[in-house]
Amino acid sequence: MPSDPHQSHLLIIEDDKGHREFFLDSPTYSIGRDPDCDIRLVSQFVSRRHATLVQVLDDDGFYSYRIVDGIPRGRSSSNGLLINGRKLHAHNLRHQDKVVFGPHVSATYLLLRRDAVMTTPPDEFDITLISPNMVGDPEDR
Fold it and tell me: Which phi-psi region, left, alpha or beta, contains residue 73 (left: φ > 0; alpha: ψ -120 to 50)?
């Protein structure tokens, strides 16, 4: 019987506070300097509401995240987003994408997948018999 495929989303933040990891599973996340943000960035160089992560469903029935500069349908951040070296307003995140929010403030997105694995219960009638002459040193036989 196969187990279901599974995926996890991880955002690794590097800022003035150091290295922190966030497992993502909610529909949206606010990212910024404001203490009310879901993912708080510790740096004077980022906006209070610097970016938003939004969960999007893909064609396979799995979800991924889209990062949007500032607040969707609202104000953009002061510095913008540098994603994989390109200044973008929004981007559908892929495994190992790097987002720079400002000097010494970045995030790396990781998509961790486990494929379906065939699992079967042990066969209660699968018995291995060992002959007494299989045990011991072959030279003693």
Answer: left
